[in-house]
# Entry
Amino acid sequence: MRTKETMIRKVESIAISVLWLALHVHTACGQATPVILTIDVDNYVEYQSDIADPAKLATLPSLTPSVQPRNFFVATVIGDIVAVNGQPAKGTVVGRARSIRLNPAGSAAAGGPGAAIGDIHRVSIREEIFEILKGDGTPVGTIMAHGLNSASDPSPGAPLAQTGGNFAIVGGTGAFLGARGQFGEAASAAPAPRAASMAEDPSYRRANGGGGQRFVLHIIPMVVPQIAVTPSGPAVAHSSDFTLVSASKPATAGEFLCLFATGLGPTRPGVEPGQPFPPSTLAAVNSPVEVTVNGQPAEVLAAVGLPGAVDGYQVNFRVPPDISRGTAIIQLRTAWVTGSPANIAVQ
# Structure
């Protein structure tokens, strides 16, 4: 049986430059449609600035509840990302908040003196940063946001799962480079995030435990993965000889295919922006890459930068064994962002 590396290396022997030129006659339209990311966080702790002596910061290993100031205090939040859209993930969410306790009724309805009066219900001014890794620890990218935090009153037009918060996504890095959008909190069965004194040592955060939180991010990505298109159709080829899948030479159930695409983002090892992938070293895509055929998940063997190409990638996958004959719809997803569908023939 061919190994996934052999299947990729074979591209080098069939005139890569000619092939990639053909694929770039035109590409599928990369419409940046909104993407919803549901991010689950555990061991989520808010360290509140309740002490004035810097020598006492982060010194106590045990649970240390905060003596919460009345208002206008600063807090730092830290939590572990454990899942994205239900898939296991890693990473860290960190944030910084300034309490404002805005309430239309002022102190009377906000639990005591010190609440600020205003026309909206908001707890704090806050910035939030999500640095997301795959389950194996590979960096995917970072999403950054600013806004107003609250347990209710989500932003207008927010996803229905969002129960509170009014944050603007102002950018990102890696697979989320240039992302825009909005986000807030969603209902979660996990215990509420824990408040702690800044005297508590955050190196014991996981040992001491914290609450959980679910965030819903409504993202408009700058880059969308797309299957390249040739004059003869989608750039999906038989791995046996790299001829394109077509009506006269359709794919078969269970067959190994490879597709050529753009917009899959950073790789390991990386390349300078705008430069071609190296001809001698396979550059694996950092982000999780998924292929579906008629909505069914396909086994993905490898996703790499195409040697010698700029923003060109090769993804090797297996057609599901039980796929029906006829026209099959293929879609490519990377970093949970889905590209436009493409049709191939299956016999």
Remarks:
- The CA atoms of residues 103 and 120 lie 6 Å apart.
